[in-house]
Write a structure and sequence with these properties.
Blueprint lengths: L2 H11 L4 E5 L1 H13 L5 E4 L5 E2 L2 E2 L13 E5 L2 H14 L3 E4 L9 H14 L3 E3 L5 E4 L4 E3 L12 E6 L2 H8 L7 E6 L8 H8 L5 E8 L5 H13 L4 E5 L4 H11 L6 H11 L2 E3 L2 H13 L7 E6 L2 H13 L3 E2 L4 H10 L10 E2 L8 H12 L5 E5 L11 H18 L2 E6 L7 H9 L3 E4 L1 H21 L17 E3 L1 H10 L7 E5 L3 H8 L3 E5 L7 H4 L2 E5 L2 H18 L7 E6 L6 E10 L3 E8 L3 H5 L2 E5 L4 H9 L4 H4 L10 H16 L5 E11 L4 E3 L2 E5 L11
Parallel strand pairs: 1-2, 1-5, 5-6, 6-7, 10-11, 10-12, 12-13, 13-14, 15-16, 15-17, 15-18, 18-19, 19-20
Antiparallel strand pairs: 3-4, 8-9, 8-11, 21-31, 22-25, 23-24, 23-25, 26-27, 26-29, 27-28, 29-30, 29-31
Length: 705
């Protein structure tokens, strides 16, 4: 974004005056600006009308008193492009382009979109094909439909690619504090990352919520997300369009590339971005972050007036790696003296109905439980419905006791209803004013607390040391498969362990095998055999020179039947490596959007059976790689399972670091490396099978000897 466009974006976000260009849609914007309380100059432009929304119309943009800071543009495609050119020439600030029919409609629309970009110049343009912008702080609604939303003077900045979803967010009955709402549409000029970059600087923004269909510039998004992270503004993301059908709909909707599930997971993990799976979870998570903040850790104190509520809290906590620390002996003894005889001392604590709603009895209990040392506190309360609320004062009494006790200990706090709608609007508003999150649904509440705690941990781990992803090193064009012997030679030259081996002709390999020592593995060397097992191009556990010679003859016949053009008289013979503690699959590939991505998975046949895999983007630290290993189900085997031997984890991490360094160094223009299996042993890790592709052939003779 150019400095001039950035300055224009600031004008658009906080305009001194607004112009609306169009007819019916412009009239709606006039209504919405009035609804939110916009009181500065408002200039409709329409040559066929005398007034819009009670404001005198101007015949053209040239007739406006001065270049407008913000414009809502809702005219057909061709006039929209012409009008943008005029606005840019006169020095307007920013434009919400509601007009559709651009890149989302195909080749014709893409050509029109290019014209729109050229016409916009340095204008800060949101859209096209978008709903626009709501600034709840400064009371500006460049929005073509009725909008809702709650703003206590601070809150979340929500940025979506879907107009209707952003409108739905404003209408939600969840009391999420909103600061800004942006519907980005096609992201032709201003993209998600531009909005993140600008809004993260605003003190009234406490968290950022994103709905992402696709990113057009991953590197720019990464820079903006890291900036937000370092400014203490957590990001919560709802990524849609990762299914095959969803991806095709994304392209047709906004012209964005969807990307793959695993790569977005890796990107979000790398940037400390909380990923959620539903719109309601996005709202509940940003609500907790904006109101209660990021907890210091995962230790919770829970309160209910129901055994069922306590059980549900405990169940969700265990699933989410949250901890309800049991009361120690001293705390338990004190609680027994404060609670009715029917109560069981525990955490979560069911303090029972005999003391419900009696502050002089509940407050000491809450104080005692919270004094043991926790990071966050939650109380489950389902308030009565309007008209049935004779007992509401008792609920409020316990809420007040909870707030006071949590505040005294400095705990991130939430009042949570079991059923989402069982927290009335007045109570939600009151809680936000007390900096206590009104959470709707136990599952949503616990998910949000766990996500917030993870974000705090991830931010602390990252510090300021995250290096940019290696997107600039991407190689486009066809790749060449490297034969396995050459690939292993390259790995060995870069300090990675491979099985001791030699290459030679079919006549030579029996003698080479004797020198290596039996048992051995035999493989045909051919760049046309990336998958040797299917072709019959590999034999394992050969125990003599005679067995090797017989295997050579049989292999030539099998490969001939599979693909005669793949047959060679060059073989790789290797001494068999001892059985490993665990087999892994490790791959690194270059992605056009995301750069270098490393995938770790259960290896061998378990790749397909378990689907146990995780991906991280490079460059990555040793700690990042260790964290990725821990996410695998088979990671428990590394430390020795049921008395079995433990793997040399440090040697494994050494190998992963060397492999990443090799790929990052662009050695021979490597486009993909896959090691499957990687034998992880008690002393070393060996690359047993290697598939490598490069943008050009590796130097001849590398595999000889």
């Amino acid at each position: 974004m150019t400095p001039k466009r950035r300055a224009n974006l600031e004008r658009l976000l906080k305009p001194r005056h607004v112009a609306v260009i169009g007819g019916r849609d412009a009239e709606v914007v006039a209504t919405e600006c009035a609804r939110i309380g916009f009181s500065r100059p408002f200039w409709p432009v329409n040559p066929k009308r005398s007034e819009i929304g009670g404001h005198r119309c101007f015949r053209s943009v040239e007739d406006l008193p001065e270049p407008p800071d913000a414009v809502f543009l809702a005219v057909p495609r061709a006039p929209a492009i012409a009008t943008l050119e005029k606005l840019a020439a006169m020095g307007a600030g920013g434009v919400v382009c509601y007009t559709a029919g651009f890149g989302e409609t195909g080749e014709d629309g893409a050509e029109a979109e290019a014209q729109l970009v050229a016409a916009a110049g340095d204008l800060a343009l949101i859209g096209p094909n978008c709903y626009g912008l709501i600034n709840y702080i400064d009371r500006v609604a460049l929005w073509p439909f009725a909008h809702g939303g709650f703003c206590p003077g601070h809150g979340a900045a929500i940025i979506t690619q879907s107009g209707m979803l952003s409108s739905d967010f404003t209408m939600s009955q969840r009391h999420v504090p909103f600061a800004y709402m942006v519907s980005a549409g096609n992201q032709t000029v201003l993209r998600l990352e531009d909005c993140v970059d600008a809004l993260s600087e605003r003190p009234e923004v406490r968290a950022i919520g994103l709905h992402i269909e696709g990113l057009k510039d991953v590197a720019a998004f990464e820079r903006a997300a890291l900036k937000s992270l370092h400014l203490g503004k957590p990001i919560v993301a709802l990524k849609t369009g990762t299914s095959r059908l969803g991806s095709s709909l994304t392209v047709s909707h906004t012209g964005s590339l969807s990307g793959t599930e695993s790569l977005y997971d890796a990107l979000f993990d790398r940037l400390g971005i909380i990923r959620v799976s539903s719109p309601s979870q996005l709202l509940e998570t940003v609500k907790f972050l904006c109101v209660a903040g990021v907890p210091r850790g995962r230790r919770l104190a829970g309160l209910t007036c129901s055994g069922g509520g306590a059980t549900m809290l405990a169940d969700y906590a265990e699933r989410l790696n949250l901890t309800f620390t049991p009361p120690d002996a001293e705390t338990a003894e004190k609680l027994r003296g404060q609670l009715p005889a029917t109560a069981t001392v525990s955490n979560p604590l069911d303090y029972t109905t005999p003391i419900w709603g009696i502050p002089e009895k509940t407050r000491p209990v809450f104080d005692t439980l919270f004094q043991q040392g926790h990071d966050a506190a939650v109380i489950v309360q389902d308030y009565p419905a309007p008209g049935l609320d004779e007992s509401k004062s008792y609920y409020r009494n316990d809420t007040l006791s909870f707030i006071a006790a949590a505040r005294q200990q400095g705990l991130a706090a939430a009042v949570c209803s079991t059923i989402p709608e069982n927290l009335d609007a007045e109570t939600r508003s009151f809680l936000v004013g007390e900096n206590v999150a009104p959470m709707q649904g136990i599952e949503e509440c616990m998910e949000a607390i766990a996500a917030a705690a993870w974000q705090g941990e991830r931010r602390a781990e990252m510090g300021t040391g995250v290096r940019p992803t290696l997107i600039s090193s991407i190689i486009e064009g066809p790749s060449v498969v490297v034969d396995e012997a050459s690939a292993k030679k390259l790995l060995a030259a870069n300090g990675m362990a491979v099985p001791p081996g030699r290459t030679g002709s079919g006549a030579d390999v029996p003698k080479l095998a004797e020198k290596l020592g039996f048992p051995v593995a035999l493989k045909m060397v051919s760049a046309m055999l990336p998958h040797k097992t299917e072709a019959g191009a590999v034999r394992l556990g050969l125990g003599s020179a005679v067995a090797v010679a017989e295997a050579v003859a049989r292999m030539k016949a099998d490969v001939t039947n599979y693909d005669a053009e793949a047959v060679t008289d060059m073989f790789l013979v290797e001494r068999m490596v001892a059985s490993p503690v665990v087999e892994l699959m490790v791959s690194i590939r270059r992605d056009l959007q995301f750069g270098l991505a490393m995938t770790l998975a259960a290896g061998g046949v378990l790749v397909e059976v378990l689907s146990d895999a995780t991906t991280l983007l490079l460059p990555a630290t040793r700690q990042d790689m260790s964290r990725a290993l821990n996410r695998l189900k088979v990671s428990r085997l590394l430390d020795g399972y049921r008395g079995g031997p433990a793997a040399n984890r440090e040697a494994l991490l050494d190998m992963l670091e060397k492999l990443a360094a090799l790929a990052a160094a662009d050695a021979h223009n490597i486009t993909e490396i896959e090691i499957n299996p990687l034998f992880v042993g008690t002393e070393a890790s060996h690359a047993v099978d290697v598939l490598m592709q490069t943008a050009q052939r590796i130097t001849k003779g590398l595999a000889s000897g």
